[in-house]
Amino acid sequence: MNSKKLTFTILAAASILLLCVFCAFFSKGQKTAYAAAEGANITQSGVDFINAAPEETTVYKAGEGSVTYIPAQTDGTAEIVLENAEIHSGTKVNYLPPHWAYAAVAATGDVKLILKGDNRVYLRSQSNNNPLLFYDSNVVVSGDGTLTIDRENASDKNRNVIPFHVRSDNDLSGNEEEYAKSGNFVLESGTISLNAGSASGEGCLMVINNVKILGGKIQTYGQAYGIYSVNGDVEISGGNVRAEEFRWGGVYAKRGDIKVGGDAKLYVSSYKNSSTSGIQAVNKDAKGGNVFFYGGETEVLVPNIGVYAQGEQADVVVTGGEVEAYAEGSGDMLSIGIYADRNVDIQGGSVISGAVNEDGNGSAFGVSTEGSIFVGGGALSAYGSTGAVDCIAAPVCAEKIKIFAASDTEGKNESDYNEDSFGAYKYLKFARTEVLSVTVLPSSATVEKGKTLQFSAQLQGNGDFDTSVAWKISGATSANTKIDQNGLLTVGADETAEHITVTATSAWDPEKSASVSVAVASAAGGASQDNGGGLKGWEIAAISIGAVLAAVAIAVGVYFAVKKAKGTKE
Q: Which residues are listed as membrane-spanning (predicted)?
């Protein structure tokens, strides 16, 4: 072999070797396991990452789409990507022997669940279904796709179904601090629809510790509870949340608080049975039980209790947002819009709480407490076919809270409110009336001495406040300069000040006022008379003299022009 062929052979071998090294490096952690590998098609079986998690990125075929598992990186969080996946709950997962369940996707550890496209998970037609099961996990859901968990056939009789289940480590259940480190759920984006049908169990979304809805959309149908936290808080600060057709509660914190705020939209509705409540937080072991509204829009429609703070230390507190809670019962049942075992405290926002009983046999109250009702801000409208409020003592209101009372639930037949008879009214509205600003018009002006100018005041605020103002002036030197109660300013002919100040002060809130500066102009001098055009005598005389001179000039011009013309002709 000559030297040229030897060189070429060596270079070719080196190139092939480099290509192999590059391919091996590039493919590290990128294992693809589509249908070519046994068991890679998980459409019917589902996949168990609790007992057998891949050490490399693995892609599984799921219907026309895929499920990708990316092992935890430096942050300790694994990723599961669902992209147009179709999966059945066919895998029996032993997540905590002897506890097991059939699942479509099961995993442990911290997981970021990413939704792409349209993903569908079907319930097993028999019992013990946990289609998405996460054990000793914290789960964060994101992406712009959808996830629907439902029966494949409407006739399926599924039992004991928890469509989306996030659990903590049961071995740590005796250590509350450690136990709370997992079993948490966060929805950042994406759309989730969970339909348990008529199945028994505990919740459509069942989370051991904290639930946080920051964005996206989640819908629950059926089950005992829609969104259920066993040991933590439920906070909905964004997104769109709907809980429907549940049997006991739409949003339920068994041992924690419920908080709704931000730009969240929450809709809770079900009439499955006479004891169905909407939003319920329970104070257990001196933990939780409060319901806080600090923003967003909330609407609740149930037969029993719309919003329920349960426990001796449990309050309903509203500082912002719009809350509408309605309870509509029948028979001899009790219906209440908002109920607290301790206090209801309205500091802001807008609250409408109503309850009616269709046939009049049962009691229905808009707001009921075992403690007190306090309105310090915002607005509260309460109505009930039995009574607007039901509490031990008359509601307490902050200063400037106006109470509108009526004897019917539509707010008609107005009557004067008497706190000694607070329980007799069927409609009560508590609204803080406040003036936010005062504006004086015109905002600037010049007034001649001896003249007048009309001012007006505009008030902005909340509630049914008094719109009248008190007028005053400052800086004037003449006793003849004054302003009346209607805002008519008169500047005295002998006023020597160059500027005066006009001020309007709210009669409802004297701390709210506005002022404008008025320039004082000297009156025009000399005699005056009405000449139709408003001209002075000397102005008319000047115009007349000018007209005479102009006429003389024209006549002289004509005379010489004629004379010149005659001379030319001759």
A: 540-562
Residue 284: predicted pLDDT: 92
Cβ-based neighbours of 28, under 8 Å, separated by 6 or more:
56
Report how far apart the first and last C-alpha atoms of the chain are (Å, whole number). Answer: 135
Measured distance CA(366)–CA(377) in Å, rounded: 18
- On average, the pLDDT of the chain sits at 86
Output DSSP code: residue 75. Answer: T
pLDDT tens sequence across 166-186: 999 998 988 999 999 999 999
Residue 321 and residue 294 in contact, taking contact as beta carbons nearer than 8 Å: yes
Element of type H or E holding 121: strand 118-122
Three-state DSSP state, 363? coil
Residues in the chain: 570
Buried b (16+ CB within 10 A) or exposed e, 362-390: bbbbbbbbebbbbbbbbbbbbbbbbbbbb
DSSP 493: T
Asked whether residue 329 carries a pLDDT value surpassing 70, the answer given is yes
Residue where the block lists tokens 């219907």: 63
Cα 50 from chain centre: 37
From residue 241, how far is each of 86, 192, 219, 346 by CA, in Å? 24, 10, 6, 23
Per-residue pLDDT tens over the stretch 467-512: 999 999 999 999 999 999 999 999 999 999 999 999 999 998 899 9
Given a cut of 80, whether residue 111 has pLDDT beyond it is yes
Look at 348 and 36; give whichever has higher pLDDT.
348
pLDDT at 163 over 70: yes
Alpha-carbon span 488 to 479, nearest angstrom? 15
- For residues 382 and 346, is the Cβ–Cβ distance under 8 A? no
- DSSP lists the bridge partners of residue 59 as 68
DSSP state of 148: E
Q: What is the pTM of this model?
A: 0.77
CA angle 313, 315, 319 (to 5 degrees): 145
Burial of 264 (C-beta count, 10 Å sphere; 0-12/13-18/19+) = buried
Cα–Cα distance for residue pair 59/407, rounded to 1 Å = 67
Q: What is the largest CA-CA distance in the chain?
A: 144
Radius of gyration for the chain, computed over Cα atoms and rounded to the nearest angstrom: 40
Tell me how far apart the alpha carbons of residues 250 and 271 are, in angstroms, rounded to a whole number: 11
DSSP string, 50-65: TT---SS-EEEEETTE
pLDDT for residue 305 is more than 70: yes
Q: Is the pLDDT of residue 547 over 70?
A: no
Give DSSP secondary structure letters for 536-566: -HHHHHHHHHHHHHHHHHHHHHHHHHHHHHH
Res. 525 pLDDT band, cuts 50 70 90: low
CB contact at 8 A, 454 and 490 = no
3-state secondary structure of 96: strand
Residue 101, both tokens: 């369940």
Distances (CA, A) of 181 to 135, 138, 178, 227: 12, 8, 5, 20
DSSP codes of every residue in 305-324:
EEEEEESTT-EEEEEEEEEE
